[in-house]
Amino acid sequence: MTHERCAELLRTLEHMTRIPDAPPIIVVDNGSHDGTAARVRAEFPGVRLLRHDHNLGAAARNWAVEHVTTPYVAFCDDDTTWQPGSLDRAADVLDEHPSVGAVMGRCLVEPGLREDPLVPELRASPVPAPHWLPGPALMSVMAALTAFRVDAFRAAGGFSARLWLGGEEELLALDLVASGWWLCWREDVVVHHRPSTARNARLRRQLGIRNTLLTAWLRRPVRDALRRSAAVLASAPKDRCTAGAVLRTCRLAPWVVREREVVPDEVERRLRLLEEPQRNSPARRYVG
């Protein structure tokens, strides 16, 4: 999916249309006004283009999945590129392990191809896993690095339109795990990320805090949601951006009450195992 980042999208499509995995590609243009749709139609006629008149946020991925005819779908932002062979390797994992609902890859950040700060945390995941799981077990994913089983994605309802964007993956991931699916990380599934400079960092930080708080209250027991909320806010700067995130969260309290569905005890036990790594993680600082 893309929004107002035509040049970055074209660079990504140039790469994705040439990898040997040869995936069918769907682009969702989230209400861009920079000529994105015209350029895609002219330069990549083999790509299916879905164009919306406004920015759907992460729910744009749901719209794309409505048009998917393959058993698996891998998401890709306009500033990420799946590396040759990685889509096939992710599909092989899903083929061979029918209880795996999603496979997340290893993120290397361009231009230096250093590992994303989150990678060591994923590699050392403390979540208990069955012996057959072909990688560390996860409780959340990053969408643009992940291949999903389409039936599982659809049954879980996809990404929440209410969360819009920024940490929107955790709610979907918890719903998948609560439904019995396993999520895993793979070292040999590689995705490059060239972070876009065309983004509102403060808005993304605010949405990230809000959505983390909302997810905790939507799915965790009260005591655990309180503890998670306190940890998130303790790690965030004490500024107007953070205050705005808290205010946005509070405004959605009636929706949270209506939609709240606490995860099973076993899922909550796994979440608790992640709390210490999350507190000490250099990748989880709301300081953008």
Overall geometry: globular
Taking all Cα atoms into account, the compactness measure Rg is 18 Å
Uncertain residue ranges: none
User: In the CATH scheme, what's the topology name of the largest domain?
Assistant: Spore Coat Polysaccharide Biosynthesis Protein SpsA, Chain A
What pattern of helices and strands is seen along the backbone? HEHEHEEHEEHEEHHEHHHHHH
- Helix tally equals 13
Distance between the termini: 22 Å
Strand content: 15-25%
Domains, number: 2
Short description:
With 288 residues, the chain is of the alpha+beta class. It has helices spanning 6-16, 36-43, 59-66, 86-96, 119-123, 150-156, 169-178, 201-219, 222-235, 240-251, 253-259, 265-273, 275-279, and strands at 26-30, 48-52, 72-74, 80-82, 100-109, 114-115, 137-138, 146-149, 182-193.
Structure description:
- The chain is α+β, with helices and mostly antiparallel strands and 288 residues long.
- 44% of the residues lie in helices and 16% in strands.
- The chain has 13 helices and nine strands.
- Strands 3, 4, 5, 6, 7, 8 and 9 form a seven-stranded mixed β-sheet that branches.
- It is globular.
- The mean pLDDT is 96.
- Pathway: Cell wall biogenesis; cell wall polysaccharide biosynthesis.
- Residues 2-119 form the Glycosyltransferase 2-like domain.
- Belongs to the glycosyltransferase 2 family.
- This is GT2 family glycosyltransferase.
